[in-house]
Amino acid sequence: GDGSVDAGRFFDALCKNLNNKHLAVYRAAAHVIGMCMRFYWQKKNETDGPLFQNTQKHLAGMLRPELKEDRLLTSLFHLCNEETGYPPLLDEFIPNILFALPRLNG
Predict the structure, then answer these.
(1) Disulfide check for 18: which of 46, 53, 58, 62 has CB 3.0–4.6 Å away?
(2) Radius of gyration of the chain from Cα atoms?
(3) What are the tens digits of pLDDT across the range 75-84?
């Protein structure tokens, strides 16, 4: 082939990095995904599709009780950044954030 990857496969691979064990990897992935979501939201008026669905699926997977909330919070911070990300995504996770607050250090 020509070495190209369709958008759905690209976004799926990018979203899988949200589950990486290294902070630098999932933080960077969240930042890039947030910028992509912002582009689709502002330039194409699109808020659904493979990128949005894959991101929500991976974030929902972080809500399992055995996982630490810091991964979810770090990812949401970078995904939903007011200047570079997609803030509307945060609305869906506000109840989870409020529930996690009493257990967070600092």
Answers:
(1) 58
(2) 14
(3) 999 999 999 9
